[in-house]
Amino acid sequence: MPVNLKGKSFLTLMDLESGEIRYLLDLAHDLKAKKRAGIKEYNLKGKNIVLLFEKTSTRTRCAFEVAAHDEGAHVTFLDSGSSQMGKKESLEDTAKVLGRFFDGIEYRGYDQKVVQDLAVHSGIPVFNGLTDADHPTQILADLMTIEEHISKPLNKVKVVFPGDVRNNMCYAWMYGCAKMGMHFTGCGPKELIKGIDKDIMNQVEKTAEQTGAVIEITDDLSCVKGADVIYGDIWASMGEEDLIPERAKLLTPYKVTKEIIQKTENPEVLYMHCLPSFHDDRTTMAKAWLDKGINICEVDDEVFRGKHSVVFDEAENRMHTIKAVMVAALS
């Protein structure tokens, strides 16, 4: 069946059919190959895209800006300090104004409802750059990276996520794996498992029944056996810094070490991470907590820098997959 995503927002992978996700991945692979070959098509020539950032970012902002420029589009960046959205002007009014100026909106912030409301009121495609509940552009890049490094099809791939199983990356992975018929295991302490959103679990389990996906949650690290991917994330999201001591205590047993990699019994297992990562004490934040006697590293440095790690391939692919999303929606 032909796929047409023109004019469609990209808010969550749960809005897409598996064939539409497949289309975006194929397009991303193609656009990456063309960029490396120096082929310029300018699929977005004359388009204008606004980037709304309530949360700071390195990869997401750079990926959207470079992807847009590569395809001939112009971007305007607005952060919380340079927009009246939600302060002197309602979200609805801001969305309607931006919809008159721009061809597309990217939003990165906190509440999933904000990105949904932007799509409702702006009348133009809206792209989710991250919310507290989801991170769909990251998962698209992760799936692309898996395809570059693992020869078997996605529906034969097992992903294990050791860490905070209630966070947006774990939810986003459940969405992606459910849609693509993959095997996903979230692994974390029972105290955090209790906090998983039941509506999200019901949603992904229903989708998994249709696609043949396996979605599991456990506190038992033996689940890493047979994993194709071990996926890491920081232990406290932006705005949760005061919870770091408690999270470090709970999640240290789930830190990704050489021993965890060995327990997969897969010599080709990949280590992946959405970044940024605490893997040494070379950041001010990691060093400050270490000075207080708390190690906040979710992965050992030897794993992060080791042969199994593809984290920088993954980071690059943010740009190629985001480019695919924008080209599909706007060209």
What does this structure look like?
This protein is α/β, with parallel strands linked by helices. Helices cover 44% and strands 14% of the residues. It is built from 13 helices and nine strands. Helix 1 crosses helix 5 (136-149), helix 2 crosses helix 13 and helix 3 crosses helix 4 (112-122). The longest helix is centred in the last third of the chain and has 20 residues, at 311-330. The two termini are 20 Å apart. The model has no long low-confidence stretch (mean pLDDT 96).
What coarse outline follows from CA principal-axis ratios? globular
User: Main β-sheet, in a few words?
Assistant: 5 strands, parallel
Rg over CA atoms, rounded to whole Å, is: 19 Å
| Count of individual beta strands | 9
Question: What is the helix tally?
Answer: 13
Q: Describe the oligomeric state of these chains in a short phrase.
A: single chain
Please list the strands of the largest sheet in the order they lie side by side. Answer: 7-6-5-8-9
- Which structural class matches the secondary elements? alpha/beta
Task: List its traits.
five-stranded parallel sheet; 331 residues; alpha/beta; four-stranded parallel sheet
Short précis:
The protein is 44% helix and 14% strand. The protein has helices at residues 18-36, 59-70, 91-101, 112-122, 136-149, 168-180, 190-193, 198-211, 244-251, 258-263, 284-291, 301-304, 311-330; strands spanning 48-53, 74-79, 104-108, 126-130, 158-162, 183-187, 214-218, 229-232, 270-273.
